[in-house]
């Protein structure tokens, strides 16, 4: 019988460490567990997300990947901090770009990656993957907060903000992390346009046939960069380009078979309990839908519910409909072509005694501006407008013409507050929600206009048109928010 070799405790521990390192070399989740701080809190979703990210690095199955998770659930830790370091351990020739909302944050994560790759643990796991330092004789391997190169290879990582230039830097891997900084930027159409143009003009120009893009983001707006790319390219489930992994803070369906939770359970209860998340949801359901559920519009696509409006017959009103002066809100359009926006108008009356806004009619039409003016002259008279009525007009391109023509025709006209216009559609709708929910808006059942109006409201922002929603918002802002209502402090 062969004599068994006795090993010391030190040898046993050394063997365990080597086994751990071998596993970390080929398994990203094992690498994360070895390299992360001891106080790191673990949850099932870490292993799941690491598996998805490892597949993205090591295979060509899904080269374009989006991961949607709530804030403070360590998505940046996994994808942006540790994954690049592990990727360079797989291939020292990877050419990588790290993109964040600005260069300051991108440089911060660049330094984090360098610190990981400079640790003794990392060097023992990946001894052939090295960065430049005092002990390295190579003088041409760059290493600074903006960029580093792998010694002995062609690999590099360049960090950049969405406003930065990356010309001359071809990318095999692009790591994109929260390219929109906050809610204010997410709600700015101008900023969203800038981000999208940077992606198409700068980043996509650096990609080639074998390139891969991984994108993690907290969804704050349905028209953010992720939303636009999904709309443009489609998802893999639909035969399109992007593989989508969504992990909401509270599970609400059974679509993701890899999610072990029951309906209603929290994603990361060790850090964000179900009770805490339910409290956030109760206080601000719209913010919760976007930030925590990664669904920037309410489930079903609507932001306005028809049930919030009060409806009254003409004979139920506390005043005679013909004895009050109705004001008009106008969102004009130039043309009668079907593909263009409609001209929308709302006839309203604010009752100071009841502190309610009555809407007699909201309608939309397409007419050339000369015909539109003639139509408004007739229609406004039918709707109860008189010489005391005030016509509020949105001052975009067509608005100036409407203002001039209607003033020439003898109507009292005023410009809709430009700060309100510049808020953008989504922000305006969010701003009026309190008043809609509170039953402060009354729809007068005078004609058959209400169903069409409510349909457009309920399908916002996913509906084809939203011009009637615009004039609703302008009226509510005028009387309840911007100081037109003396009863609102």
Structure, described:
The chain is of the alpha/beta class and 489 residues long. The protein is 40% helix and 16% strand. The strands form two sheets. It has a seven-stranded mixed β-sheet with strand order 3-4-2-5-6-1-7. The longest helix is centred in the N-terminal third of the chain and has 18 residues, at 9-26.
Instruction: State the fourth-level CATH superfamily of the largest domain.
Output: P-loop containing nucleotide triphosphate hydrolases
Rg from C-alpha positions?
Answer: 29 Å
Distance between the termini: 94 Å
| Spatial ordering of strands, largest sheet | 3-4-2-5-6-1-7
Q: Provide the helix percentage.
A: 25-40%
Mean pLDDT: 89
CATH topology of the largest domain: Rossmann fold
In short:
This protein is an alpha/beta fold. 40% of the residues lie in helices and 16% in strands. The protein is built from 17 helices and 14 strands.
Sequence-ordered SSE layout with sheet pairings:
Layout: H1 9-26, H2 28-35, H3 44-58, E1 64-68, H4 75-90, E2 95-100, H5 103-117, H6 120-125, E3 147-149, E4 156-161, E5 173-177, H7 183-187, H8 189-203, E6 212-217, H9 225-233, E7 243-246, H10 274-283, H11 285-292, E8 310-313, E9 327-331, E10 343-351, E11 356-365, H12 369-382, E12 390-393, H13 397-408, E13 412-415, H14 418-422, H15 425-437, E14 441-445, H16 450-459, H17 467-481
Parallel strand pairs: 1-6, 1-7, 2-4, 2-5, 5-6, 8-14, 9-12, 11-14, 12-13
Antiparallel strand pairs: 3-4, 9-10, 10-11
Helix pairs in contact: 1-2, 2-4, 3-4, 4-5, 10-11, 15-17
């Amino acid at each position: 019988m062969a004599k068994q070799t006795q090993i010391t405790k030190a040898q046993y521990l050394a063997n365990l460490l080597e086994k751990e390192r071998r596993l970390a070399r080929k398994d990203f989740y094992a690498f994360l567990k070895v390299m992360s701080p001891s106080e790191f809190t673990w949850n099932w979703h870490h292993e799941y997300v690491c598996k998805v990210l490892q597949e993205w690095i090591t295979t060509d199955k899904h080269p374009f990947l989006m991961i949607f998770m709530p804030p403070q659930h360590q998505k940046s830790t996994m994808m942006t901090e540790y994954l690049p370091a592990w990727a360079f351990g797989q291939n020292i020739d990877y050419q990588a770009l790290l993109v964040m909302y600005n260069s300051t944050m991108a440089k911060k994560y660049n330094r984090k990656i360098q610190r990981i790759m400079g640790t003794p643990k990392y060097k023992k796991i990946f001894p052939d993957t090295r960065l430049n330092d005092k002990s390295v004789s190579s003088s041409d391997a760059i290493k600074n907060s903006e960029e580093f190169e792998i010694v002995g290879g062609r690999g590099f990582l360049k960090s950049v903000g969405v406003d930065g230039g990356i010309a001359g830097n071809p990318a095999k891997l692009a790591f994109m992390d929260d390219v929109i900084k906050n809610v204010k930027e997410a709600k700015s159409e101008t900023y969203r346009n800038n981000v999208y143009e940077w992606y198409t003009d700068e980043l996509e120009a650096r990609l080639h046939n074998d390139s891969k893009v991984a994108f993690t983001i907290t969804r704050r707006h349905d028209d953010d960069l992720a939303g636009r790319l999904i709309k443009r390219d489609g998802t893999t489930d639909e035969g399109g380009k992007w593989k989508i992994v969504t992990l909401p803070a509270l599970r609400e369906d059974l679509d993701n078979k890899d999610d072990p939770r029951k309906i209603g359970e929290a994603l990361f209860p060790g850090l964000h309990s179900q009770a805490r998340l339910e409290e956030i949801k109760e206080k601000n359901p719209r913010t919760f839908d976007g930030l925590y559920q990664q669904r920037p519009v309410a489930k079903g696509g609507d932001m306005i519910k028809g049930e919030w409006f009060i409806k009254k017959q003409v004979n139920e009103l506390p005043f005679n409909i013909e004895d009050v002066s109705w004001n008009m809100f106008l969102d004009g359009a130039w043309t009668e072509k079907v593909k263009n926006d409609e001209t929308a108008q709302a006839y309203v009356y604010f009752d100071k005694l009841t502190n309610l806004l009555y809407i007699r009619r909201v309608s939309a039409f397409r007419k050339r501006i000369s015909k539109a003016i003639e139509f408004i002259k007739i229609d406004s008279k039918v709707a109860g407008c008189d010489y005391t009525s005030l016509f509020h007009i949105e001052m975009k391109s067509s608005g100036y013409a409407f203002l001039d023509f209607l003033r020439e025709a003898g109507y009292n006209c005023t410009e809709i507050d430009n700060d309100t216009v510049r808020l953008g559609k989504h922000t305006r709708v969010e701003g009026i929600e309190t008043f809609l929910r509170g039953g402060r808006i009354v729809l007068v059942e005078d004609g058959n206009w209400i169903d069409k109006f409510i349909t457009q409201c309920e399908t916002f922002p996913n509906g084809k048109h939203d011009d009637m929603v615009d004039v609703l918002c302008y009226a509510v802002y005028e009387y309840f928010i911007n100081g037109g209502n003396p009863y609102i402090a």
